[in-house]
Amino acid sequence: MLEVSDLGIKFKMGKRRRSGALAFILERGSRNRQRPSGEFWALRHVSFAVERGETVGIIGSNGSGKSTLLRVVAGVYPPDEGKVSIGGEVSTLFGLGTGFNQELSGLDNIYLDGIMIGLTKNQIDGIVDDIIGFAELGDFIDMPVRTYSTGMRSRLGFAIAMHSDKDIVLIDEIMSAGDAAFRQKADAEMERIMGERTVLLVSHTMATIERFASKVIWLNKGALAAMGEPKGVIEQYLAASMVKKP
Amino acid sequence: MIEQLKNIWQRRELLWYIVKFQMKAENKNKVLGFVWSFLDPLLLLLVYIVLISIIFKRGGPDFPVLLFIALLSWRWFTSSLNRSVNSITSKAALVQSVRFPLAILPLSGIIIGFFDWLFGFAILVPMLFVPRFEVAFTLNILWLPVLLFIEFVGIVGACLLMAVLGTYLSDLGNIIRFLIRLGFYLSPILYSIKDVITSERLTRFYMLVNPFAGLLESYKNVMIRGAPPTEYALVGTAVACVVFLVGLWYFSRSEYKLVKAI
Asked: Over 70: is that where the pLDDT of A29 sits?
């Protein structure tokens, strides 16, 4: 379903990064260039395979490359090294509604996001009622997204990702969204699609990972630190980061 | 490069939706937004008529319509450029979570700009029938879609370039705004070339240096003066084609790197 072999993603620092033209000219003149240059590897020598229907938890401290890995699977970053082969379509709305247009209504955003991830208008027509129902937005669905609370926004994003009917679902820190009632519903939804779809789940909540994942990948500074049974890998990770298990 | 065009064509539904929803988001209030789409160019026109016709007492009887067609076409170019500069960085969250042809972002701005051109054109058409403006109707008006297409090709190239450069250079917007203002006064919009340059050689030199000038004079010729496009429109055509190819090549080359540079 998903096979990653010897993956490397490299970021350039300094020259290629965003900065002003004016700054560029001034720096030339001053001869005192303090900007760092060179490159760093956000991911390197990462290899793993995911079978159809598996739910894979991805853990690691901040900046360890978890989101970068999801972006590679989403096709946003092409690999600088190694290969990624994906046998299916990817639902890429893992940003939980970060791509929403603030001025548009929730309904318009459902269509925009749906088209974005490659659904057709007819397909969206078929699932739009389910999404609205699941997100529990009521009349707010016709209001601009800027009037939504954080929870409402996350709920809508989650609902779209879950209903998009793609083979691979990428989820980034989603389970913390919404109140207790919605979390229960979201958990139930997760259980429903488990086994049916392939899920990559990034979370800092170990309980969530333990509950859903059949396999866990621990990333440390862009390298694959460990992979395998959830319990064992989580214990190693927690031991390494010296955090007491709750 | 061909592949780039193919990819965009495959995702044309996405392009259309982005255009549709972007216009909807900009006109938050439906009725008011719609009215402003017409009022905007009209008020802009009035400002320049007051400046040139009333204060400076220049311009002939057909000045308002000459100005309007040139102004609309110039505005299409500049609004597209302005939008394209931050078209990718302003959608960073989207670009970093979904794979799609990034060229769709600057392209959507160009199409929105063309809708503004159409709104303005809808106001220009009844003005053409005002006898005071002495508009000559001929079949030369059929050149209009050709001129629009040439301009479109050039705008696409320029906007693709700006979308890439604007991602790397955060102050490109400031530079572009200055250049656009300068370009506005250096192009035959508020005036016609024959009003300011009498020498044949100087005209030729000016037209070769400013590729947009030939296009703008051609717009005026075919719409108002009932004449064919000037031969200098060929300069604009050549430049538009070159800019298009360079822009498409540069964008295709940089597309993947852009996402990492945001």
From this structure: no
